[in-house]
Amino acid sequence: MTENVQAVVDKTNKSKRLLSIDALRGFDMFWILGAEGVFAALFLITGLSVFNVAAEQMLHTTWHGFTMYDLIFPLFILLSGVSLGLAAKPISLYSAVERKAKYRHAYKRLCLLVLLGIVYNHGWGTGIPADFGEIRYVSVLGRIGLAWFVAAMLVWHFKTKTQLYITAGIFFAYWFILAFASVGDFGGGNLGANFSINAWVDQTMLPGIRYQDSAVDPEGLLSNLGSIINCLIGVFIGRLMKSQKDISTVLLRNLLIIGFFTLSLGWLLDPVLPVNKTLWTPTFVLVTCGWSVLFLALFYWLIDMLNWQAWAKPFAIIGMNSIIIYLGTALVNWKYIVDSLFGGILTSLSDGWQALLAIVFLLLLQWLLLAWMYRNKIFIKV
């Protein structure tokens, strides 16, 4: 009887922890489904400067610097690492058949995310028959796939201490490359928009086209080194959560310490190596990991410790099908659907209320689709 009760408790704790991670992933996705415009709309309605400041945080930085909108992508990558750290174990502990299945899944996931990323970028550029020189091969989904794949290989094949050494090695190696590697006019510490070493790598080695024909692609080749670190740090955080699951107050304290320390270190080093999302600099890694861990601590405290779950469920519903709804933002004309259903209401309103309710209706339609999928247990995983 005692064993059965303990099994139920363990299952419940696991479910809650997964809810907190799914809720944070859904909260992260919420802002790129259309919610990023809500503050600008509120500023139009109220004229309050606080909403204008918040609206500015919902825009990417032009080059050096950081806004909260810059956090969305790296937070998602770190959470994929957290899930890996919670669940993964050395590949040697699996049978030969299981190992083969694991490898097949990892390669399939990587290839599928790269392919879906191309689809998100609207595929073949000029249309089929394809002009392969007009395809943008790199993407947000492709970067997520690569970061997870590298992290999975390291988790499966190396001990934790070795993984730490490799993570530190990637961090300092990338810093060294940014600071000293040079080819002609490129690199050698130049972190400008046109002549960084990343720009040379993308212009020389990246097939197809770059984002908006820019000098360096924001999902370019060399900056993958930075995003891999985000995922690996997520792995270590996941392991910490797993090892300290029975001492929640200690875990919360450690998450807060790690978050504040990493965030502070990133900004302390900013004068030496600027925080930059496009280049995904090591300082950008530190700042985004710091914020990500602090958000994770907040969600862990609210959901796992205080057991406040009702508010988190709508976000968790988004998080359970995050990849498919992300694809939907590019492949479905949600604005057309909103205008078709609610256009009469919207056009009768002032500009501010029209902008705000258009966002509300857009989010509601997407959420209802996800809620229907959740209710019918349709979870599209990659």
Written description of the protein model:
The chain has 382 residues and is mainly alpha-helical. It has one domain. The protein contains 15 helices and 2 strands. α4 packs parallel to α6. The longest helix is centred in the N-terminal third of the chain and has 29 residues. The radius of gyration is 22 Å and the shape is globular.
- Cα-based radius of gyration, to the nearest Å: 22 Å
Span from first to last CA?
Answer: 39 Å
Query: What's the story with the biggest beta sheet?
Result: 2 strands, antiparallel
Percent in strands = under 5%
Number of helices: 15
Protein name: DUF5009 domain-containing protein
Transmembrane segments: 30-51, 71-94, 106-123, 135-157, 164-183, 221-238, 250-269, 281-303, 315-334, 354-374
Keywords: Membrane, Transmembrane, Transmembrane helix
Short description:
By secondary structure, the protein is mainly alpha-helical. It contains 15 helices and two strands. Helix 12 (313-320) crosses helix 15.
